[in-house]
Every structure is written in structure tokens, then in C-alpha cells.
Amino acid sequence: MEQPARHYDPGVSEPAASPAADRTLVIDLEGALLRSELLMEALFSSPGRMLARFGAGGRAGMAALTDVLARAEIDYAHLPYDSDVLNRALAARARGEKIYLVADRFAGHAAGIATHLGFDGIVTPAELAAGGLPFDRAAIERIERRGTPRPGLKTWAKALRVYQYAKNTLVFVPVITAHQLNFQTLGYALLAFLAFSACASGAYLMNDLLDLAADRQHPTKRHRALAAGELPISSALAAIPVLWLLAVGASLYISPLFLAVLGAYLATTIAYSLVLKRKMLVDIVTLAALYTLRIVAGAVGVGVVLSEWLLIFSLFVFTSLALIKRFSELSMRESAGLADPSNRDYRITDLHVIAAMAAASAMNAVTVFSLYVSSSAVTPLYSRPWMLWLLTPLLLYWFGRALMMAHRREMPDDPILYAFRDGPSRIAVAAMICIMLAAI
After folding, report:
1. Which of 35, 217, 233, 250 is geometrically suited to a Cys-Cys bond with 195, CB 3.0 to 4.6 A?
2. pLDDT per residue over 362-416, tens digit each?
3. Could you give the 3-state DSSP secondary structure of residue 101?
């Protein structure tokens, strides 16, 4: 009589019913070992190359797409494997058991994963049910696919980068600097903040999908929800259009002109994700422009005139912060002994040049602010304009501290986010706000 296959229960110890060499562990690839979808992994292994191959083939239809995906170059070493299942498989391998993967599609990729992990091969669900197996059915233990758990709020917040919404508070800057603090303008500014947040979250998901392979080789980005397999790729694909539609709806309520600015932000973000972030210094200018667009959108959203002083000051500030961000990323790779980044056109040897440019941009920002304080544009807006001079040493301190922390490899976050988390930086920013209010 044939012995039924045994199933893995992490809470039950395994009886030694037969010698380990005669036993076989059978693992469902998708839903058990792999915390992702093989189809989506093939699609996003190299999206640009996939589109090029599909276009070059001159064929249409699902069969052509399946053929292209079957030949995709997936990095099997960095796929998001379930650690518990993988550890159990490696323990079984150490005991001399045979290990097979169950895969019903993309047999080539399944075989590549099995080879990479040192398993004995693959079988299909039909072979497992009908027989004709390359092993004895009498001593099978199977780890079956589980139901895909729904990602929780914490996972979604991580994937949508809710903590990055701090950057979108820049839309409030024009309201504050123009001294238009009332319920109507603050309401429109809040709606603009929500529109930018939804738009940015959709862009972050898209960027993470395009950067899956690179993120999984990064010491910190590999913990992102998509890279770690915590959020299904299909869920991210479904969320992107929903987020962008919400952003469009909020923008139309504000004004068509605001929608145009948001559209320019999204188009620039997409261009950055696809091409511009791989261009030396072009990525820096683009990041500075994206930050500045938030301020432009804030002015458009509440209907105030944007000061050219604020615009020039913002460009220098955000150029410096973008350079500091790139410096931090490169210095972290240097400290970890990693090679130059594959998805950025920078080398670790560029660190000194980047640091010098960041310092120069920061000092230019302080210079522009000093010229603004000494100009005639200040008098109509402030009753005590002399108090604004107190901001200059605070700006020098804040920029200097950011540069020093980055140089010491103590700034793991984006510089703007770091300012919200770093105690001395929070005190400096709070003091600057108090001085501005007192000057009014």
C-alpha cells in the first residue's frame, strides 16, 4: 500500500521512519519557498531588456511574451526566499535527503533555482499526482504552497514610503513665506500635500519595481517591501494607478494649473526612474528640480506669487541635499567594501568631488539668503526684518552638520528625513521657524 506524502508542520518534530538517504523533500516553489511570483520576477528582472526583446521579436500575444519571460535573466541568488522553508531544506540536504521543487510554469527558471540552491531537480504537479517520479513516493515529505497572506498596514506604509511624506510639506512653504495663513489657503495646501503624497507613493512603487534587482544587492534597500517579498508585485502594480487617480482627483479640485504642475512632477519622476538617475549629475539636478516643483505647486495651489528669491534659494538648497544623499550612498558602499553602484553613474572615487560640490551649493544657498535679507523685498513682508539675519548662522550650522554627519557615515537617511530625526537638526529648524514668526 502506498504511503501518503507527509506535510511540513513547523510545530511537529519529524519521526525517523526511514534512512535520510531514502527520503525526499518536495517543496512548492511558488507560495512556499519563493516569497514572490515567478512570472513577475521574470518580467521585472530587467524591464528595459524585456521590452526590447519583445519588440525585436516582432510577435504579439501571450505565447511570445511567455517565451521572452522564459529567457529572462533572473538573479537566483538574491530572490526573496522564505527563510524558514530554505533553512529546513538546507537541513534536509545536510542529512542526505533528496530535494525537489514543484513548479508548474517556467521550468527553466525553476531548474535554475534548484541548481543554485543545490537541490536535485524539479517536478510538475501533474507528475507528482500521476507518478513517474525520479524518486520513491513511499518516503515523501512535502512543503506545500500556503495561501498568500495579505500585506498589513505596516507593510503598505513601508512600501508607499509614508515617512517620505515629510518632503511634501514643502508645499506649505509659499503659504508661510507669503504670510497667507488662513483656513482657505491652508485647506488648499493640505489638499496639495495629499495629492503629492499619493502621486509620490505611486512613483515610489514604480521605482522599486524597476529597481528590484539592484535593490536586492543593496545592504539596506534589500529590506524594502517589494525587494524582500513582503508585498506582492501584482499588488503594487494594482496600487499604482489607484494612487495616481486619487492624485488627479485632488488636483482637479484645486485647479487645472496645479494638475499641470503635478503632471510635470510625475513625468520628471518617471523619467528619473527610467533614465535620468543613471546619468552623472543629471540625477542631482533632477532631484533638486523635483524638490523645487513641490514649492512651485504649493504657490500654484494656494494662488500666491512665487518669489524668485525663494526659487533660487531652493535650487541651491536641494542641489546640496541631493549631493549629500549621493555622498552618503557612496560612502556607505565604501565602508561596506562594495563595488561601484551598477544603477548609478558614480564611482566611490568621486566622493571628494561630490562632497566639495555639496558644500559649495550649501554656501551658495546661504549667500542667496543673505542677499535676500539685505534687499528691499524684505521690508514690505516683515516688521522686524533685522531678525532674519539670525537665520544665517543657523543655516550655516545645519548645512555644516549635515555635511559632517555624512562624512562620518552617520547619515543613513535622506538628508531631509534626517533633519526630522536628528535632535540638533530639529532644534535648529524649530529655532529658524520661531525667528521667522517673530520677524513678522
Report:
1. 250
2. 999 999 999 999 888 888 888 888 899 999 999 999 999 989 888 888 876 678 7
3. strand
